[in-house]
Amino acid sequence: MKAKTRHSRERKGNAGRMTHLQRVMAQPHYILLSLLLSGGMLALYVYTQVIGNVNNIDVWAANLQPVRGLLLVIFSMLFGLTTTYQIHVWTTPQTCSLVQKTKGTGMSGLSTIGLFLVAQCPACASLGVFFLPLSAVTFLGEYAEWINILGIGLLVFTLHYLGAFERVK
Asked: What residue intervals traverse the membrane (predicted)?
């Protein structure tokens, strides 16, 4: 009988240490959604970097600097997590009020749009070429790593703002 009580105490102790994000990502359909969104973001980003010419993906990958590639992968993974958690918040009525459900949306959108304007590879034109003047594109290319880090920071801030890192009660 005491072993059963100790086991239930251990289980309660572990549940108290889980964050909301861990609890959500423990569900297989949310893991799958996060992987699909992360892969989709990565594929869409690469597609926009080669401006629709998929034959140039190997050229893009060959010129991609390792640091920028790592930042792109981290951004894509965080994008999938953030979007999945936001969907969970929207679809779970007991999670929070309507105000909290909508408050993190703008930050994740801002970081995503910002990343599409930055070229990861100096030999490739980004989507920003179509919308921005040459001086702005040059500036974005020069500070691409810092802009990527800022985008990653905005995604982490969005998760924090939505309460993803709070402990489950």
From this structure: 30-50, 70-91, 112-134, 146-165
